[in-house]
Amino acid sequence: ETGVTQTPRHLVMGMTNKKSLKCEQHLGHNAMYWYKQSAKKPLELMFVYSLEERVENNSVPSRFSPECPNSSHLFLHLHTLQPEDSALYLCASSQEMGRQPQHFGDGTRLSIL
Amino acid sequence: EDKVVQSPLSLVVHEGDTVTLNCSYEVTNFRSLLWYKQEKKAPTFLFMLTSSGIEKKSGRLSSILDKKELFSILNITATQTGDSAVYLCAVALNAGNMLTFGGGTRLMVKP
């Protein structure tokens, strides 16, 4: 139990669907992160939120839309995804933005049909 | 472009063996290097290294950083099947302290 909970654990969706991934942290941290982990590629940072404000967007396509309503919750809204978006999406949190270590959730395994 | 390279890509050993995993990096404004273990789910934090030559140890695992030669090693002694996992190396930079990850080393320990 890492203190970072992600739901759902698995998600299969068509390219025209809209879905959301959820992340909740119970560690009292102020920063939250979304990462993408594709097969045979390193973990890629997608978004960073610090105190509910987005501070980093690593050239992520607009079909991924993050939302951080408070410092404990982070969402990733998905729409019109492509097959190459199939991957493991990991959420992480840290005490402050950029402060290490980051604590990871178990991830959502996303498959796009 | 910042780069973190791990070797080997994969490794198969038998229980009781000792393994050494490598992580080399080429980055601007290095701040720290971290090791994570990833089984089938969340990467779990192992070590954070900021100073050269100071070994960090936790049970059978140990790690050391060489900031002159720009690499780190992770040693696991007396390996067990529970050590089977992907081991991830990441480097944090001074600018923003965000993590850049290597591709990982997949370790399989056979009984």
What does this molecule look like?
The complex is a heterodimer of chains A (113) and B (111). Chain A is mainly beta and 113 residues long. Chain A contains no helices and eleven strands. Chain A has strands at residues 4-7, 10-13, 18-25, 31-37, 44-50, 53-57, 64-70, 73-79, 87-94, 103-104, 108-112. In chain A, the strands form two sheets. In chain A, strands 2, 4, 5, 6, 9, 10 and 11 form a seven-stranded mixed sheet that branches. In chain A, a hairpin with an 8-residue loop joins strand 9 and strand 10 (103-104). With 111 residues, chain B is mainly β. Chain B has no helices and eleven strands. In chain B, the strands form two sheets. In chain B, strands 2, 4, 5, 9, 10 and 11 form a six-stranded mixed sheet that branches. Chain B has a five-stranded antiparallel sheet with strand order 1-3-8-7-6, with no helix packed on it. The model of chain B has no long low-confidence stretch (mean pLDDT 94). The A-B interface holds A 2, 4, 40-45, 48, 56, 90, 97-107 and B 4, 32, 34, 36, 41-45, 48, 88, 90, 92, 96-104.
Largest sheet of chain A: 7 strands, mixed
Number of strands of chain B: 11
The radius of gyration of chain A is 13 Å
The best one-word shape of chain B is globular
The shape of chain A, in one word, is: globular
Q: In terms of structural class, how would the helical and strand content of chain A be classed?
A: mainly beta
Could you tell me the radius of gyration of chain B in angstroms? 13 Å
Which structural class do you get from the secondary structure elements of chain B? mainly beta
Hey, roughly how much beta strand do the residues of chain A contain? over 45%
Please count the beta strands of chain A (DSSP E, at least 2 residues each).
11
Average of per-residue pLDDT values of chain A: 92
